[in-house]
Write a structure and sequence with these properties.
Chains A, B: Pfam families: ACOX, ACOX_C_alpha1, Acyl-CoA_ox_N. Chains A, B: GO terms for molecular function: acyl-CoA oxidase activity; FAD binding; fatty acid binding. The structure is a homodimer of 688-residue chains. Chain A is α+β, with helices and mostly antiparallel strands and 688 residues long. Chain A folds into two domains: 360 residues, Butyryl-CoA Dehydrogenase, subunit A, domain 3; 136 residues, Butyryl-CoA Dehydrogenase, subunit A, domain 2, CATH 2.40.110. Helices cover 52% and strands 9% of the residues of chain A. Chain A is built from 23 helices and 13 strands. In chain A, strands 1, 2, 3, 5, 6 and 9 form a six-stranded mixed β-sheet that branches. In chain A, α9 packs across α19. Chain A is globular. At the A-B interface, α3, α4, β7, β12 and α9 of A face α3, α4, β7, β12 and α9 of B.
Chain lengths: 688, 688
């Protein structure tokens, strides 16, 4: 009988042998084609070769140490980017692969995009080169201690001093201090500050200003600026999210970002033609968060699946005397494999969103803003839904790994802590559902007035509400479990449910409910609509986007069949989770509900044999996963033991050469030798 | 208009003014009466006075620093316990209040109880005093790298050497190394080791042995024992969970714990009369985990409620120009207040479980083991359900606090990370559901054979399945939303659902399904049964346990009414979450489903005015909460800013007196001054 360690390697090899498709085909697809994959893999190898990016002992480091490691990474990242002339997309992959939020992250992800989109051409000509080449290191300072994204309630002021042609930037209260600003605490020498623009006592609302923070000569904070790091967080441990308070700091009038609004020397304010164009940035970031969610789910699934394939517990096979691979238990499948299906659905929805966003960006250069609303609504809805799927799903997968899932060596904790931020930033998830719902409600009202109006495909189902009498008689037509698998039947069911929730929201509003009292209805509706979109995208991605020729090869057939099993899992898991909403108006019968539960069980079973193949298909390297449990070779227990070698409590500073812990003489010996006093029952004179 | 800071204090005061009951009445109740509260509060004050327990800068410390702080805590804890003659219950409260898992935690929570229950009277006479007085510092070494709680698959062996009258303790493989053992890594000088007992080649299964680990003279590891700390974890940051591997370590034969099994000098093995009696320990720990869940939920609710009462965002009141307290939004209520209701339900269920366990312990001294099964099943089911409620609910409440919930200053993260362990240890939550379901299935089969058999109250509803024809015709009799509030109607609904799931599990088994294929059914059934128990306990606690005299005072009436609103919230939140299972067999009508959703909204509204009163009622001190957001006085923003003062990145070591960050010269300057090279597009000769 092989040792547990060897058995793990046999097990994972056996999993790969029984996989019915070639995972590397999907890897290339997910990397954006063979060519791009080659290039991205070269970048990964480059990072692996560079000592400053080494992550061997990352899990042992406290915040100060992580920050100290991050500074050399910043420099080396910029050097390598420049040396190899990386495209923005390649540089982005580089940063993802580093897998740590280096403290200039916000310079590239927020400061530069805001500058590019909101500074005038003239301003960009001056500032652009400084910013692109890191002479200016910048951050984007919007959030305040007392307010998140509500621009209208920010307290920081920018008051025009006509005499000097300057803005006076001021933080009147403690709650007006800028807070949560990444790259601000220690790194940035410039900030785009959102502040209330005030001219002659009149408040024109929040606008962006370029404010120097630190001397370009020696990095000392400029007069009137109090800046500091804001303290430890759930994630982003290496990032210097910061606090800044401005005491009447003066900047030139021309430091206001003037692409959309302008203020003249005379103090005349001109407003933007398209006020909403100024908010393109959040939409872009939300779109990337959808892709980031997919990546994070895929990462967790890779680790959880591989470990569950090599971890044997419970029922013993009498012939081999081996316990069962835990991945064979439905409870384990149910807690891990749906996350795989969500990762796929999110990837396909990310493609869809990326394309819509690209189209919108192309349109807008021609002055066509038709897609503005859709881009905003779908990036909001998908961001809200996918980040929650990820945040919850990764944690559930972690809990499914037994005790070892609680160790940082699992590789499931460090990145998840960071990921947890995504449910809050760029629009809090629950809040975003109001935007989606308001949009659907508006469409519904429009359609009722004008049933032949144009609707974009994802909201076309709303038409079914025009004849409400017929709508309420709709019933799911599936006459057997097999028919439930039919994509049309599923999509129709999700459309019906979302439409019903739109109608109910409209009714509630009609009956006088305040919008702010309809939060729960919005959360429910947005989720219903987005779940429909996700299934539609997954289905289209599978059937149309990668359209296999009419004569597919056996290899292509095998791949499609495998991915289709994942699609079915996504569908039935979602259906089962939301079953009440399909039952409560009678659209589903009790029998159909029972079929759904059975179809979910069957879907788990049919994904199971390919599970390790799917884990492999995302193409993560062992170095990136940084996981004792989820490495490619399956040697989980050996790696768990090996990683303890780096624990500082076992190092020289904390344990002497005889193996005795720091503090023994002072704190332990008195206990062991009874000097700390023996326990006696309470005496009446106890003063306690 | 007051500043945001002053407004926060006005807001929280206004909340307290409008509370309809006296929170201190509940505080006394939860502390176990006025007398006990006085004593416990004195212990809290004592801890607050002791510098070693100070937690001002706890959130900034890395693992090594936390461990270094924990050692003095260990010594001081023992000294104070001895000095004041604290009872075990008081010492337990002391440790809870320290709010850090000091690295001898497992000595008192596992080593001592196992010794007391599994060593023979004779052994206890020798070992007891050493262990009680910390001469022996012990741990309980069961879990191995390759196995969790499955005693039968542990690999460590204890082989009797008849010649020397010794056991030889050995770890044959890497995966047999003891792992996850709290207090082992650096602190313990003894362990109770679970090892396979082998005599003359015969394996008698796992048994406990007292194994010396480190010299009592100088704390050096004994020959043949490799021990180390096992590395960083999600929580328990100050705890030295450890790794130990034994290389043919010899201990006297009499170091086997012999209360239940014995081995004579001649190598004759005697088995225990009641084999299951040996496993009492886990049941006790599970029972305490129920109480621990309640405490943790209450803690999160306290912080989240207070902050949401002083946090104003969104809709503006035109008269006052104040934004809305976020606690007034249904989305916020929906994400925080149900956790309050779960905390109450868990407290009342904890009382119920504690009493059952005390009764069981009393019975057992008289040789009566009737309650063994119930104690095991209910501690398992409640542990599984309540720890999950807590783990998920605390995280949801944290996410509801906006960005500041992501800061460690929120006070929502450090304790939650530790709490997350509870879903895994002492029986993994999903696994435990099988035990509950197996028990219910067995009862069902018995009842079918013998309908007049005795059933304990919580499972009495199973009788309804005897006449199955009548059972399937059951429908919820509520004719209005008001009738849904009737406790009898609610309890009946939960009974019906659990009974149906028992029946379906039995059917699936009858039709040939393997038990291991029925995981999902077990998870569903166990949850259904436990949810019923929780509601029953909450209801009884409210109506019977604290039975108000027939002429209640106005104060008592007010309290009861307030708690009843929390009960309703718990009921309708649970009902709504599980709505599909009430609909899918037609027990609920679509109309009743709609009433449920409305009743949930109404329940949130009716708890809302007392929310801060309920947050206060748990009696947590500000020092314990250690939260910028949830302190009693509501000064959230000021405290957030104040706590940044302690951030080491702002300290001398990382930022010089001019305000310039460590590493500026080496890593930032080269970027700012362009020495790191400027970006150029990729050249063809790039080797990447």
């Amino acid at each position: 009988m092989p040792s547990a360690e060897n058995q793990q390697q046999l097990d994972i090899a056996a999993e790969r042998a029984k996989c019915t498709f070639d995972p590397s085909q999907l890897t290339a697809l997910f990397y954006g084609g063979e060519e791009k994959m080659k290039r991205f893999k070269a970048i990964e190898a480059m990072v692996d070769r560079e000592p400053v990016f080494d992550r061997t002992d990352r899990y042992f480091l406290g915040r100060t140490e992580r920050f100290k490691r991050a500074l050399p990474m910043v420099k080396r990242y910029v050097e390598l980017r420049n040396e190899h002339g990386l495209t923005p997309e390649e540089a982005a992959h580089f940063k993802v692969y580093i897998d740590d939020y280096i403290p200039v992250h916000l310079h590239e992800s927020m400061f530069l995009p805001v500058l590019r989109s909101q500074a005038s051409d003239e301003q960009l000509k001056v500032w652009g080169p400084h910013a692109e080449n890191y002479h200016y290191i910048g951050c984007y300072a919007q959030t305040e201690l007392g307010h998140g994204s509500a621009l209208s309630r920010l307290e920081t002021t920018a008051t025009l001093d006509l005499a000097t042609d300057q803005w006076v930037i001021n933080s009147p209260t403690q709650s007006s201090a800028k807070f949560w600003i990444g790259t601000l605490g220690k790194m940035a020498n410039h900030a785009v500050v959102q502040a209330k623009l005030i001219i002659k006592g009149k408040d024109y609302g929040s606008h962006p200003f370029l404010v120097p923070l630190r001397s370009l000569k020696d990095h000392t904070p400029l007069p009137g600026v109090v800046i500091k790091d804001q303290g430890p967080k759930q994630g982003a441990i290496s990032m210097d999210n910061g606090y800044a308070r401005f005491n009447h700091v003066r900047i030139p009038r021309t430091n206001m970002l003037m692409r959309f609004s302008q203020v003249s020397k005379e103090g005349v304010y001109s407003k933007p033609i398209h006020p909403k164009l100024a908010y393109g940035g959040m939409t872009a970031v939300r779109t990337t968060l959808i892709n980031h969610s997919a990546l994070s789910m895929a990462r967790a699934v890779t680790i959880a699946t591989r470990y569950s394939a090599v971890r044997r517990q419970g029922n013993v096979d009498l012939k081999t005397d081996l316990e069962t691979q835990v991945l064979d238990y439905p409870a384990v499948q149910y807690r891990i494999l749906p996350l795989l299906s969500h990762a796929f659905a999110t990837i396909f929805s990310g493609y869809w969103m990326n394309e819509m966003y690209a189209q919108y960006n192309a349109d807008i250069t021609k002055g066509d803003t038709t897609l503005l609303k859709d881009v905003h609504v779908y990036s909001s809805g998908l961001k809200s839904y996918c980040t929650k799927l990820g945040a919850d799903g990764i944690e559930e997968a972690r809990r499914c790994l037994g005790g070892h899932g609680f160790s940082l060596f699992s590789g499931m904790i460090d990145f998840h802590r960071q990921f947890l931020a995504t449910v809050t930033y760029e629009g809090e998830n629950a809040l975003l559902t109001q935007q989606v719902s308001r949009y659907l409600l508006k469409l519904y009202k429009d359609v009722i007035r004008k049933p032949d109006m144009h609707l974009s495909p994802p909201s076309r189902y709303i038409v079914s509400l025009v004849n409400h009498e017929r709508f309420v008689q709709q019933r799911c037509p599936a006459r057997s479990m097999a028919e439930l698998y039919h994509p049309k039947i599923v999509l129709k069911a999700f459309q019906h449910r979302a439409a019903r929730l739109i109608f109910e929201l409209a009714q509630a509003e009609k009956q006088g409910a305040q919008w702010s009292d309809l939060n729960l209805e919005c959360m429910r509706l947005s989720k219903a609509h987005v779940q429909y979109i996700m299934i539609e995208n997954f289905h289209n991605g599978l059937e149309k986007r990668y359209n296999v020729s009419s004569n597919p090869t056996a290899e292509q057939e095998a791949l499609l069949a495998a991915v289709r099993s994942v699609y079915n899992l996504h569908v039935f898991y979602t259906l089962e989770t939301e079953l009440a909403e399909f039952l409560e108006d009678g659209y589903f019968s009790p029998e159909q509900a029972a079929w759904t539960r059975q179809a979910l069980k069957d879907s788990l079973k049919s994904v199971r044999p390919n599970a390790v193949g799917f884990a492999d298909c995302f193409g993560f390297t062992d170095k990136f996963l940084n996981s004792a449990l989820g490495s490619y070779d399956g040697r989980a227990y050996e790696r768990m033991a090996e990683m303890t070698e780096y624990e500082p409590l076992n190092g020289k500073e904390m344990t002497d050469e005889r193996g005795v812990v720091w503090g023994y003489e002072e704190f332990l010996k008195p206990l062991i030798f009874g000097e700390a006093g023996a326990y006696k029952a309470r005496k009446p004179e106890s003063k306690l």
